[in-house]
């Protein structure tokens, strides 16, 4: 029997739990996929792409997202720039610095997302301090209204509310421990947004159970220890991690170091439901200047190569069990 995860529980709120009529006229609960889970299931194996919003400009990001969508990306992560991106390697750190130098702010980020229209669901990847600092705090509003101040807890709801309003389907927070994720988990549930956690190669036992009890959408499987960045091969830790996670009934997508179609094929063949690619795409952007149309063409071509690789892996891997 597979282990229970957040995504498998019938008490999930919003569009993930509906009621349907039985043949005898009675009602029964029926769980439905979130936007992210549906994208992975319908396009299995899924290709998940990442670029940094505002690198080198917000106008270019819009064109790049559209290129990723045309190329066949099934989910698109947009990095909201933060000054201390601890999980990122040199490539994405440089992209974040370019975006910050261009003046990218959270408000501009959400304006960009408002203006995007893609087939692929969109996620934001950022750091917890950005979420906490966004918008007026609940305590400040209560104080101005003369009400009693609420209990001292992270004020994450303004960010999550804006993310939902913009149409984002998921949030990834690399520096948020599962033990401290309760307020953000609750806010995401209230607004039908998936909260994705990163699972390191060394995570196991009770800590792994705790993470997987909080995750929804997909588990972001870290292919190797260290930071992000394109690599020449697939780490052996990837195979070990997928074996360790096999009993959890949530999609697993592997990232950190994936850069070629052959990598995608090997990862899917090892049992992954999706492949995450970031640095290889950011490298393409870095090799072009602002407003350089060929960058979008190269991104689209790279995504097609990666998606084809993932499909090759599926031809050799067993089909996933249907719920």
Short description:
The protein has helices at residues 35-42, 58-71, 90-101, 106-115, 128-133, 138-144, 157-166, 182-190, 205-214, 236-244, 261-269, 279-286, 293-316, and strands spanning 17-21, 27-31, 46-52, 75-79, 122-125, 170-172, 194-196, 198-199, 219-222, 252-255, 274-277. It is α/β, with parallel strands linked by helices. α11 runs parallel beside α13 (293-316).
Give a structural overview.
Residues 1-30, 304-323 are annotated as: Disordered. The chain is of the alpha/beta class and 323 residues long. It has one domain: TIM Barrel (Alpha-Beta Barrel), CATH 3.20.20. It contains 13 helices and eleven strands. It has helices at residues 35-42, 58-71, 90-101, 106-115, 128-133, 138-144, 157-166, 182-190, 205-214, 236-244, 261-269, 279-286, 293-316; strands at 17-21, 27-31, 46-52, 75-79, 122-125, 170-172, 194-196, 198-199, 219-222, 252-255, 274-277. A nine-stranded parallel beta sheet has the order 7-6-5-4-3-11-10-9-8. Strands 1-2 form a two-stranded antiparallel sheet. Strand 1 (17-21) and strand 2 (27-31) form a beta hairpin. Helix 2 packs parallel to helix 13 (293-316) and helix 4 packs parallel to helix 7.
